[in-house]
Amino acid sequence: MAHRPVGAGSSFNFTAGTASTSSAFSVQSSVVRIVAVGGAAFVAVGATPSATNADYYVPSGGTATLALTKASNRVVGVTTGTTTIVTVPEGTQVPFGVGDYITLSGSTYHNFTHQQVLSVDTSAGVAGYFQSRMTVNYNSSGIVTAFSSADASVTTSNKVSAYGVGAGTLYYQQVQISGDA
Fold it and tell me: Which residues of the chain have pLDDT under 50?
């Protein structure tokens, strides 16, 4: 089985009996490879994970490949305010659900990282818009520059959490897998 790295890998330290959590990352692949070094850990992956001793066990020196759910879309509009409304192209749907966490990138002023989707409105004709829109829990009221980016996109955002059996370091890297599993 061969792995092809996707994006940059990262790591964080964990201690025995407590949950430690990584920084957020944009989901770019359907698999994350995890390696525990120096100590065993129980691992959880998701929007706001807090690993417990009931989660996926990775022994010290062991590896695991866990599935991710990947979703993204182009952004054609951003309405600023105490919450932020993100508009995707007409004829497409917002691929996220309420409670998902997303990252917007590719815009000079409107980028944000790991913010929660509060609502999704995909019905036609809402306030004159025939495009899919979502409201995000991000206060963009201080941005006065109009949105104008042809390259902006939104992607699912996740974190990795480790509950240590002992102390150690958890390394994680999104990968593509080829060959027999």
Answer: none
